[in-house]
Amino acid sequence: MNLCRDTRSVVADLLLLCTNPALDKPSRQARLALLLEQPMPWDEILAAAQLHRVQQHLHGVLCRSRPTVVPEAVSLKLEAEFTNILWHSRHLVDELVRLTNAFNHASIPVITFKGPAMSTVLLNDPLPRHSDDIDLLIPKDQLHTANRLLTQFGYSMKVPAGAPPDMFLSPSYLEFGTQIPYFNEKNQLWVDLHWSTFGTYFSSFDWQHLNQRSRSISVDDHQLRFPGDAELVLLLCIHGTIHGWDRLSWILDIAHLVNRTSDWEDQLNVATQLQAERTLVLGILLACTLFEMELPVAIEKRLSATPELTRAAEVFSLRFLRNPLLSTPFKRLELWRIQLCLRDTLQAKLKLWLVMACYPTMTELARLQLPRWLFFSYFLIRPLLLVGLAPRFCWKWLSGAYFNQNGR
Fold it and tell me: pLDDT band at 27, cuts 50/70/90?
């Protein structure tokens, strides 16, 4: 994919140089020296680094190896943010160990993903990667037990404004939802309790599959269960696709996996089972494009059969390269077209249409909690609501509400 240099922002180039896991130190330093010869918009750089959760990388590369070219105020800002990331990560690690130990003691099987565990797998250290919260995946039949345990540890469910306090435990939400967000007022930490991986957008791994293929990792000398490599890269690619690849750090996670993986057949087989092969190929293509890495042969073969993915990757790449602050929203029809393009089969494309047109939103589930025998009514109510909405609001919902929500 040819991405012209004259269309690229200097901010994007600096962020990519500082984060690229495939660059050796001499190459990075030589390219940085050339780039830093020109005036740098440091305010934009700091804002973009914060938006994309890569402040720690800029701190490590700029403040330590080239301190003379970085203004003192910028250096102090990066140092403070790096310290905050380490401090927050330390608290997340301690809480992750505390909660998983409690879950194990209560005989609740639990798999952790993202957060400090991801940092351990990718960087061999639970602290450097920027993490916002703790993500725990458990069997659905253990939700009520897990909820009581989290409540004992000071966590409470964060329901939408105006919703009943027990909304997330209602039969309707447990049927259509995928996770419950918890917040601890005392330690100011978030925990997302999942029982499904992808919700309504893609077919999900069942618990048995994830549990059987999970592995044991050591985080702070404690053994935790973590997804296998094939499931992990697919989780990352689908998560990035659902949220429109709005963070460079998400693509960087995939780049780390690409940099250390030689055989992609297992990942492709798992993706094919979930009808998400195109999404996997797109995520890897994005990582290889932005971080100038060689595309794996198996992925290149799949790409040759689906050339439209090259266009999709170009759209996401150029959006970041030209405007790393992402101040210009996606063209809605373009994003919608890409989402349809990424569905592997006609059945998957039809499912996406049905989800958008008929599937209840969290707000609707909060306002209208139906008994189980009336669940079918949600699929009738949604189209009626759409028909009754003003055209402008209807257009906003169809084009953006599902795909531009940023996860914490």
Answer: confident
Burial of 267 (0-12, 13-18, 19+ CB in 10 A): buried
Question: What is the distance between the alpha carbons of residues 200 and 366, in angstroms, rounded to a whole number?
Answer: 18
Q: Quick one: how far is CA 387 from the chain centroid?
A: 32
Q: How far apart are CA 120 and CA 97, in angstroms?
A: 13
pLDDT digits (tens, 9 = 90+) for 265-281: 999 999 988 888 999 99
Domains in the chain: ranges and CATH: 108-227 (3.30.460.40), 335-408 (no CATH)
Look up the pTM and report it: 0.88
Mean pLDDT along residues 343-369 = 77
The per-residue pLDDT for 258 is 93
Convert the pLDDT of each residue in 100-138 to its tens digit: 999 999 999 999 988 999 999 999 999 999 999 999 999
Closest CA to 250 of 283, 204, 289, 205: 283
